[in-house]
């Protein structure tokens, strides 16, 4: 009740101040006009030029870049990577202003465990891991996470303030069950190492909590937060297998995560330094057809003739682009992210700042990893997975509402914890991502284990795992590169 009163008064404060100051900004990186043209099989201009490569990679997100990295490591140079946007990176894109670089979406990688060999190999290559020691400058500084609950900030995001002994008993029992699941060896990163068909995939995470008589509203919030944050979905729409994977796949960490001001854009930048000459930006592929044993890949810039294709664009696009490709039943979550230029940063900001009872996910501070002793200006990246309604309805809402609507929604949300937010912000840019990440709905695991990836088009997007994290994108990119090489090019 207190929280509700505070929220209302905060919203009113916001409205008065808003009348005095205009906060500029706009939508950035909109990709849906092109996406809709692909979906509607719109007419594209035929290219006059033709080029030949044994391997063509489509999509320059983390999966496509990882495929390219692997090809180079295998001493294979005869390939090209086609990216539709002006900037590679996909969900690991970044931006920069006069204050700092900042992420547009992916912003961290948990410190990889000993079994995540490929992730460790990449970080050794990039100098983040040297002789088994992680570069301290890349390990998230304290304070890492905080939660605004009942009118004040607490450290960590597991709700503690005013928790009862029943809440704490549920936390403990949940943790014990997670530890048992971890010990089965089925919940691994990469997922391929341990995943197999499971009864858990037949129910939602919410049903699993109910069946196991978890009643704590705090635990329910926490599990829902985890599903919203990693999968863009509520616990009721998430497979229990995936919900448990979130908690059981990682060792309780002492250190980390690995993070940079521009988030995982830092990794993209380092990869681009090596891969620049293989990458063609502004090159959307609109069709892939077979011609005998070869493939013709069409873009408006050129036609590419290839023996093998690594398809690292989202897999749902395949039926729209590839002749004869079957439809996949993958579900995708829509997201909205925003970068707020902060002129007067509060002193106590953590890296990740979450507001209890908010429909959004909070914000990450881009200046957190700065070594400066005094920080007044910063950029906050605000995250919001629109999961309260079916994805198609949320996508429609995302497009229907204008930038002012979303700006107000973001400011009102932040004013719960920062009543003076409108005085602190000088700009808000917003990115809308209709099919942002694959959603692990009940049944997803079976559909992924059944997915055939035979070539000559090798699929590689992170959505092949059913959930989207850096490690899975890298894994699929590398595996697709290995398969393309093994199939003889
Ligand atoms: C808001 C948000 C926050 C996230 N935060 C994290 C995080 O902190 N840590 C983490 O590990 N993961 C995070 N993720 C998950 C993230 O999706 C993965 O880490 C990873 O970046 C996915 O890479 P990908 O290559 O599989 O897919 P994408 O990033 O989707 O890349 C696909 C690429 O294909 C291109 N493309 C599409 N169609 C075509 C076409 N027709 N022709 C040519 N190119 C095309 C796209 O432009 C894009 O560059 C986040 C995701 C979102 C949405």
Q: From the coordinates shown, what is the CATH architecture of the domain at 42-95 and 263-328 and 451-486?
A: 3-Layer(bba) Sandwich
β-strand number: 21
Radius of gyration: 23 Å
CATH superfamily of the domain at 42-95 and 263-328 and 451-486: FAD/NAD(P)-binding domain
- Which bin fits the share of residues in helices? 25-40%
> Which ligands does the model contain, each kind named once?
flavin-adenine dinucleotide
CATH topology of the domain at 42-95 and 263-328 and 451-486, by name, is FAD/NAD(P)-binding domain
- Morphology call: globular
CATH first level of the domain at 42-95 and 263-328 and 451-486: which class? Alpha Beta
Q: Could you name the ranges where pLDDT drops below 50 across 5 or more consecutive residues?
A: 1-19
The helix-and-strand class reads: alpha/beta
Can you walk through the features of this model?
By secondary structure, the protein is of the alpha/beta class. It has a domain at about 40-95 and about 265-330 and about 450-485: 3-Layer(bba) Sandwich (FAD/NAD(P)-binding domain). It has helices spanning about 1-20, 30-40, 60-75, 115-125, 165-185, 205-210, 215-230, 240-250, 265-275, 320, 390-400, 405-415, 420-425, 445-450, 470-485; strands spanning about 25-30, 50-60, 80, 95, 100-105, 110, 130, 135, 145-150, 150-155, 260, 280, 285-290, 295-300, 305-310, 330-340, 350-355, 360-365, 380-385, 425-440, 455-460. Bound molecules: flavin-adenine dinucleotide.
């Amino acid at each position: 009740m207190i929280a509700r009163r505070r929220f209302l008064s905060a919203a009113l404060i916001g409205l008065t101040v808003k009348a005095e100051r205009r906060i500029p900004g706009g939508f950035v990186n909109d990709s849906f006009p092109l996406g809709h043209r692909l979906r509607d099989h719109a007419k594209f201009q035929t290219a006059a030029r033709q080029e030949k490569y044994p391997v063509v990679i489509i999509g320059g997100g983390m999966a496509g870049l990882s495929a390219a990295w692997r090809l180079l490591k295998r001493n294979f140079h005869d390939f090209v990577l086609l990216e539709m946007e002006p900037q590679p990176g996909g969900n690991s894109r970044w931006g920069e202003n006069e204050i700092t670089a900042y992420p547009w979406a992916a912003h961290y990688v948990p410190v990889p465990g000993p079994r995540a060999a490929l992730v460790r190999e990449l970080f050794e290559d990039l100098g983040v891991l040297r002789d088994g020691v992680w570069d301290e400058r890349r390990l998230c500084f304290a304070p890492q996470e905080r939660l605004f609950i009942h009118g004040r900030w607490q450290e960590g995001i597991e709700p503690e303030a005013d928790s009862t002994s029943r809440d704490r008993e549920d936390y403990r029992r949940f943790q014990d069950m997670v530890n048992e699941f971890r010990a089965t060896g089925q919940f691994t990163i990469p997922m391929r190492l341990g995943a197999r068909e499971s009864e858990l995939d037949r129910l939602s995470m919410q049903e699993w909590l109910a069946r196991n008589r978890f009643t704590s509203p705090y635990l329910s919030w926490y599990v829902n937060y985890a599903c919203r944050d990693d999968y863009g979905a509520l616990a009721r729409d998430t497979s229990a297998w995936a919900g448990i994977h979130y908690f059981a796949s990682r060792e309780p960490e002492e250190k980390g995560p690995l993070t940079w001001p521009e988030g995982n854009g830092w990794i993209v930048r380092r990869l681009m330094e090596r891969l620049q000459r293989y990458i063609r930006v502004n090159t959307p592929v609109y069709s892939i057809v077979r011609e005998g044993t070869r493939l013709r890949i069409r873009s408006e810039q050129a036609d590419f003739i290839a023996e093998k294709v690594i398809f690292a664009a989202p897999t749902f696009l395949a039926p729209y682009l590839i002749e004869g490709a079957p439809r996949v039943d993958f579900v995708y979550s829509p997201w909205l992210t925003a970068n707020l230029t902060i002129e007067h940063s509060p002193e106590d900001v953590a890296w990740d700042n979450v507001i209890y009872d908010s429909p959004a996910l909070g914000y990450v501070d881009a200046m957190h990893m700065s070594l400066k002793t005094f920080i007044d200006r910063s950029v906050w990246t605000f995250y919001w997975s629109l999961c309260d309604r079916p994805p198609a309805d949320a996508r429609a809402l995302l497009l229907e509402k204008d930038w002012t609507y979303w700006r107000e929604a973001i400011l009102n949300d932040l004013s719960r914890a920062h009543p003076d937010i409108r005085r602190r912000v000088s700009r808000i840019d917003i990115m809308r991502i209709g099919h942002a990440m694959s959603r692990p709905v009940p049944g997803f695991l079976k559909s992924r284990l059944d997915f055939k990836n035979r070539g000559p088009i090798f699929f590689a997007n992170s959505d092949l795992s059913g959930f989207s994290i850096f490690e899975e994108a890298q894994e699929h990119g590398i595996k697709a590169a290995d398969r393309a090489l093994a199939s003889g090019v």
